[in-house]
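User: quick one
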Amino acid sequence: MTRVLLLSSKRRSTRLYAEAVEELRALGAEVRLVTMSRTVPPEVGLDGVRSLWSASEGYEPDFWRSTAFAPVARRMWTYVKHDEWTLEQARQADLLVAVDPSAIYAVWQLASTNPAALARSGVYAALRALREGATPESVPVPTPVPVPVAGTVPDQPTPEPPRRQGLLVSLRAARPRRRAAVVVPEAPAPPEPGARARTESARVVALLAAGSRTEALALQDRLGPTFKNRRARADFHGIVAAYELGSGRTPPRLLEAARAELGHADAQWEAGRTKPAVASYLQAVRLLFYPGVHFDSVASPLSADPHGFASVLADSALHRALSVPRGRARPAAALPTDRGPRVLVVVNGNTNFVSEFASRLHAERGAEVRYLTPEDLGGAAHYVRDGTPRLLHSLLTDELVREEAEEVLRPHLDWADVVLAEWCTSMALFLTLVDPGDARVVVRLHSFEGWTKWPHLLDVSRVDEVVYVGEHLRELVEAVVPRMGPEDGPVSAVANNVVDLRRFELPKHPDVRHTLAMVGYAGVAKDVRWTLELLRRLRAHDSRYRLLLFGEDLPETGTAIYREYERHYRSEVAELEALGAVERRGRTVDVPEALREVGVIVSSSVRESEHMAVKEGAASGAVALVRDWPFFEQQQCGARTTYPASWVVGSLDEAVERVLAVTADEQVWSQESAVASGTALTSWDADVTAPHLARVLLG
Amino acid sequence: MSRSSRRLLFLAFGFPPALKSSTYRLLAIANGFAADGWDVTVVNAARPLWEDEFGLDESLLAVVDPAIRIVELPLRRADLETDIRAFSEERALHPGRWLRQWREQNLESFPEPTFGGWRDELETAVLALHDETPFDLVVVSCVPYVLLAPALRLHEEHGVPFAVDFRDGWTVDVINGGTAVEDDSPEAQWERRALEAAVSLWVVNDPIAGHYRARYPELADKVRVVRNGFDRASVPDLAPSAATAPLCFGYVGTINFKPDFVRAVLDSWRAARESSPLLRDARWEWRGNLGAGASRGSSTVLELLLDAEDDGVVYGGPVPKNELVDLYRRWDALTFMVIGGAFMTSGKVYEYMATGLPILSVHEVEHDASTLLEGYPLWSGVGDVDPGFLEQAWARTAELAVASTDADRSAARAYADRYERVGTVASAVQALSERVR
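Assistant: Done. Structure below.
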């Protein structure tokens, strides 16, 4: 059996892998895949798959600092050489394949340690090599010079089986451990600050690994302040945080770890070492806004303590330097009266929530609408894709990024009367690198951006108005980003999305009142497990209750925190499916038609901007049940200010009570259904929301 | 000298068994000279180069005139190398930088970044062939333009006349229109030198001919339009019959489109399938070369096509020329997609028209293909890549497939008859033969 190892530096189509695997297997190969992507292709016949992204979660701070500026190819090799699974597969492979150009370097390096393996670039070349029965060239790849991994932790001297000498062998000695030792070291702490950080953090980690969490935190709290060296303090907290993240838990001292890392960043910045400073800053914001913590969890430390997050960043000199407001030379001009307004929509790619509005803006206000996407930025596009390190470095040094932004954006800004940055992400930041001239600049923040670094880096002095999709988002973002608040920030407004709800107004099928549904449930933020629990409780009253799940299923890969959630979900949904209580319908093109068989639409989310699926469901005549979104429950605004109070429940018990009440009999349900539909159509249909958003946008 | 003893050297990279968009033209020209009584020697790159690039079509060798001698030079393109063991660390780590440097190195030999490095080997090989048995005429078909170098050298050192088949032209930008290079650039200087020495210049359409006549007024009488055309053996003998649902649309040709273009046409296809009952279960089959070297089998465009499988889209790989007839027989309508504008025609449009099938166009309105398709009875028009236009065009083309009459389809084939390649090439060969007699 020929062993083929595919290496890919990015996410690729599942079908592409399926085709490749099928053809390789037809030639008698076992096929394994190593990818930098967080998601891996499901069920394509692979004999093994490895996400380097997932494998890296518990890596220590210096790994992230050292890879921040690395080109993709070198970064991938750094991930590969730290991953024992990949190294082992590479040693056993007969054919190493780079699926894309940025994976070539990793293959080139791996090939140097496995002279018997073929090494090919591209899937077709791999197939051709197998068909032709090729053998490796007699002249091997020149032996590369081992790249030392700066600042990483030498392994503890554990017994190793004898193995041949080679690059990978030497690398093993330099590989950082994903999880520190679980045995409390008995040796006295060495005097060198970095070494002490490793030793002391190992003590904390050992307690965590043993399940002694209270003691571990107490030890961490006691030891933390004793580190006077800022790098050592960052390492100490960072290693503990990495252990927790790799174990699938939110680090209780996440803020402390970020604060310590920012302290290290500031120290580098003060010493004139800009690049290491930016790398460290990015490690800090990586911790602060770690996706596993905020997007894959049903509780968010940011929501619980927005002011704490704000102060961590505000205390950093480097962060303040990165976010110095530049202002604009003159205010936005009044809109022209002799022609329709010219509106430039700046977007990273997702136009789902703006296309309907843009069409109406054109039809009803005579606006000329153009889109500006990363593809339109030419060579500067990398800044808004994966070039944040270079963007920030340039802001602190030569400011060339501002010149590049000026060159590429100016013609668009000169053309536009109004610029709408749809989503407050990297494109919005790139937009505010230049003075907008006469154009009015509006940034629309939907939801997830509130748990990212982007609003913190946005130059709000060049933004005329921020539009939030929900009042509760405004409350949260203004708390976590004080310079967007009413005192210092731009004008702000709340405007719901523009969606045509009339098309959901279709007659229901008979007997739908016991049918609950969620439309879109793939993210942890939707917390489908809450609905599954609700269903279990309802069925204890009446076994006619069932749940339809529309949309993509939860992916099989993600952060360690996510995988914990997903593991529970799989077993729970399987159990209910076996009873016929749950049906997963998959992606549905015709949602209005699908909703005809739904009696109750459920929002079990922990975080939403407005949850369009609920509004669409209500418009269809499904009675709505909305959980009081936990990420906002301690604020003044949340689900209860988004929806009629009677629709919102604070607990599962309340949810059971409401569903039983509104579905008690056909007549009650019909009355509730009519109210839901009427409310949705008169409050949130595009005929209502579009004019409002247009007024906000056009000033 | 008797006519039968006249010897032609045809520098034709991409000649069979290569599978390239230019291959059929090269084949027709070589066969045309052989039919005209010339003793033809074709110089091509050896097979491994074409295997590295788009692949081979062995079936084409069966239609090469057996009297033609084929000389294959062992040339390769380092940029198409896929054996990573052959890479330096610099190349493995910075493939983009390596490519730039490799191209710059090639430019030192000849102003053509990908092929310039072949110049020395080409000149040596051609001079050796001429020493072996002298040639009376050289025809150079470009791309690559570096083939001009041995032709010029043979002309300057041994007085052998040569003609240039430029197809698309060097100094004209066939994609965006206008001039492709600065007037004082090395490319422009080489082109002037070559065309001044050449006895004839062939190009594929009137706009390109116009460019050269305007650029070199003193050489205007050398310029001749030798259009591409269709080969009778590639299209069915009979006109197609009316189609019934589910319909099958087809595209065959080089798939050299950018991902955004492919996304846009696939989106229009999806929209049309939703809105048009005739298209609800329709299939759309794509055939042709997709990517060269390492990108073959791994490109973004391939991903887009594979991901569209649920929408009835199938990518079936390249198709040998001798299987084209079967393809056209089972397709109900054709999608003609091509890059470029007024200076671009594409060889495929002639073959498409010769099938008598309805044709949907996706290209710029101001395109040379539009001027041909304007008179084709089963054409659904052109509107660039405008989503609204395309959605309607899909529906109109489907309607043409099911509702056009036998008379309509016969008329369509009759319209295309004038573009049969063999006649076009024969008259061009004859004229050139006369010119160098």
